[in-house]
Amino acid sequence: MEHHPSYLQKHASITRSRINNFINDNQWRDVNLKSVIEYLRLSGEPHVSLEVWSAPGQDRPTFEHAAKQKYRPARIGESFGPSWTTHWFRVTVNIPKDFAGRGVRFEMDTSSEAMIWSVDGDPIMGLTGGGGRERHIDYLLTEKASPHEKQRQFYVEMACNDLFGNGDYHQHPQDRNIYYRVNSADLLSHNEPVLALYYDLQVINDMANRISEESPRSWQALAAANAIVNVFEHTDLSTVEPAREIARQFFKAQGGDSNHQVYAIGNCHIDTAWLWPFAETKRKAARSWSTQLQLMDVYPEYKFAASQVQQFEWLRENYPSLFTRIQDKAKTGQFIPIGATWVECDCNMPSGESLVRQFLLGQRFFKEHFGEISDVFWLPDTFGYASQLPQIVRLAGAKYFFTQKLSWNSMNRFPNTTFRWVGLDGSHVLTHMAPANTYAAQCTPGELMDSVKRHKDLAYTNESLYLFGNGDGGGGPLRDMLERLRRMENLDGLPKVKQAHPREFYEHVESTAKDLVAWKGELYFELHRGTYTSQSNNKLWNRQSEFILRDVELLSTIAHSKDTKFGYPADELTRLWKLVCLNQFHDVIPGSSINMVYRDSDKIYKDIFASADKLRQRALDAIYGELPPLTATPEGTGFAVLNTTSWMRTSIVAVPAPLSPVFATQADSSLVQVCKEDGVVLTVAANVPGFGAQIVKPSTHLHNGNAQFVPARVYASETSGSFVLENRHVRVVIDNNGRITSYYDHAEKRELVAAGAAGNVFELYDDVPDYWDAWDIEVYSLEKYHALDSGDITIGEEGPLVASLQLRMSISECSTLTQKISLSAISTRLDFDTNVDWHENRKCLKAAFTWDIRSDLATYETQFGVVQRPTHRNTSWDIAKFEVCAHKFADLSEFGYGVALLNDCKYGHATLENKMTLSLLRAPKAPDEHCDMGHHQFRYAVYPHAGSFNESNVVQEAYQFNVPLQVLPINPSSLLAEGRELPLGQPCFSISGARNVVLDTVKLAEDDKTSYIVRMYEAYGGHARALLTTRLPASSAHKVNILEERMCEDDSNGELSWLSRSKTVEVVFKPFEIVTLKFTS
Ligand SMILES: [Zn+2]
């Protein structure tokens, strides 16, 4: 064909439109390139016949079950539903002679997700119907059909959901009544050279559009694309080859030596639950990953990384043949298991030990099933990264970290791309945040250019990672992405790109980068701050699960050490930890999933508590089994209490019912209290040893040094409407709304409440975020609130051990709050036991405390340590932290004095100047319309202390608030009679010389029943030299990492010395160091 000169540089935008029109679906589809991409498409009988069987309810039957059912004929255009139902199709295809010698594909668009199965029950690949960019509906039946093709049969499992669940995504709750239409089921053959030209033009066209007009390459691309349009003739396919030749000539120009190198890796982010339940995730992983295996066969250069060990385990259980194929592809290096953790967990709320278990479970699975652990901590999509992660990552045998989520920050652009992330203790990990700012890239020239443009550390390193493939709901890379990647490998005008294991990228950076910058401390995520509070029951149960498993492991280790026939419940504990870790997935515990997910996690927590209770009882039976249960009333005796924290403590405890009368009559009346409310008898358990037990007798005396025991008391103040709670330490004035108007410390002679202000003020905020309902509390929400003032308060308990007030308050016309405010005789701490009946719409309830304390920094507990954050709003970085995450406490201290706000399940905190707030409840309506509606019970406390935070025992007090002394269900009278010692009367572990060291975890070693593990950490941020004595059997002690491997063969480097005679080990700690010891008996 002949043509005139183009003059295209004079009308570039018109030429760009011309090229777009040439390659896209539009009104010119009958004459443009698209018109001839398909060679032949055949539908309906006799080529394709469909039969269907619909599974009952929301069942997701196995292939074996489904294949046995009775199928009925089905037709194109039929719709199937409602949401979450499953429909199995038996598909019979007859490939006619027309296709002989050609590649033939089966295309089925169910508008939903689906999976193709062979008649033998092998999962072959996933399908994604509908019109989105994730559309992927073709299955290659043969690369070259013979003229005598036999009839073929296979199955399609249609799931009535799309990649993003059911309904309008995250702005609304899921729609339970969606029906999905089967749009097509066709046989198809492409004109492969036309398809290749189409991919050529996609690349050239995007380069013409995205490369700056200042670069000649932009014009070369536009000219090449325009020339192709001029050469191509849709009625004459012999024009395809000359058109492709123009493309080849354009692709010949390569980039220079200093070009940026992109390391591309396929992936598909599969949220382990989010807009769909766990059960659907099991199928999503199978669908997405099987599709990738198909692509690997066609594209030998293709590499794909998958994280989240839980999904691997589900696959192993439910799709064993697919799991084996993945293992095979892992051996060839194409399928890359990555990530190191059990799930891609939230990193704000899980405890330190939970994070340890995420890695322990994850790395052990990788080692067992893929032969090696992952050295990359892979977490593209989590809502903030705690400051202890670098140390934990290092201790888990990994050294690299990947994310990109901080590119979502709403106020400040994070300043680094490739950097050393330095944690709380000084450990660092080489960290990279993909500069394309996505984990679902589409393999376009524009995105590759963004990888350079947005890279903030090009002065030190000239490479970046690039994660391509559809995700969130799975899907993954598509064929066209791999085709484009092939064309862009080394192309002038673009950075170079190659597919590689992410480790290759990190190793290259490690060996070549100069002077990488460092970022110290947490990677605070400036978005999704509502996730510290939404779905509050989930957060409560997570906290309780962490503590009950801690107790079970400690007690089971003790029981095992007494008698190895006890049978340490290792498998059951592993199962329970896997469940705890599963619910810590980054859309479950943050509260950003649909209602179905929380009904599932409710059941999981129920299982955890029931099973852990049984295990705890079993361990206690083994330790105290020789003693009769505490049933009858023994005369003149006491009961036993157990302390599972590592320090000695004194607490008020409830006397077990059978002994109530004895205590009520025999005990020193100042040390016994019969509660007015429920008749429960309280007494004092004094000086109970850490990790030990003690018998509490009616004759127990409370040692207050030389001081007299002063009972706690409560009385109405002479000032009308106020009440006073008072003990030896403090005098607290509470008004009719439950507000603390004065908190006077007798010993320090100082007032804690700021003049004219108050504590425990309930503030109700408008909570209408910008976009993401369950996810976000926005900064402007703080501008609009009112303080609740409809309180009514009465005197509750009147001492001598506990004095309390009972508050009732309406929050609105539909929500109410009751609160017991109590002060014991033995502490400065004021407790708030709270019940809320909550039926609000987009409101946030906070408790606020305004103290007479001045400090630029507040201290918040994080995993195995604390983090300090500003109390001012100087810069946009400070303002962005208007709501932050903390674990068991937040503390505001100045020189000489401070106060901690403790909690038993809350995570959303803030401190602005001298006002501390704790977020109690939110009321988002999407994606779960029922989020947090109903009854809630939770506790928090105010704990004033002399000295600054570092001089206080706030860490210990916060543990005690969460881990009460346990009354043991045994009758120790025979021991008392015989003068024998109570089991654990001598603590099983004791620490001396370092009050800043906390012993957190005791467990049996993995794979080694003769050893046990003790995990400690330095909690305040200083050095320490601690002596740890064990009374369990031990002949040696070694420092191990969290995978329980020896850190070095020789521990004689001054950090650890073992005194075998006293079974004492001396451990040197650096600030915030986590130390794991392995004792072998
Ligand atoms: Zn995610």
TrEMBL record:
What are its GO biological-process terms?
mannose metabolic process; oligosaccharide catabolic process
Q: What class of enzyme is it?
A: hydrolase
Q: Which organism is it from?
A: Coemansia pectinata
A GO molecular function annotation here is: alpha-mannosidase activity
Q: Which SMART domains match?
A: Alpha-mann_mid
Instruction: Kindly state which reaction or reactions the protein catalyses.
Output: Hydrolysis of terminal, non-reducing alpha-D-mannose residues in alpha-D-mannosides
Q: Which domain of life is it from?
A: Eukaryota
Q: Which UniProt keywords apply?
A: Glycosidase, Hydrolase, Metal-binding
Its recorded name reads: Alpha-mannosidase
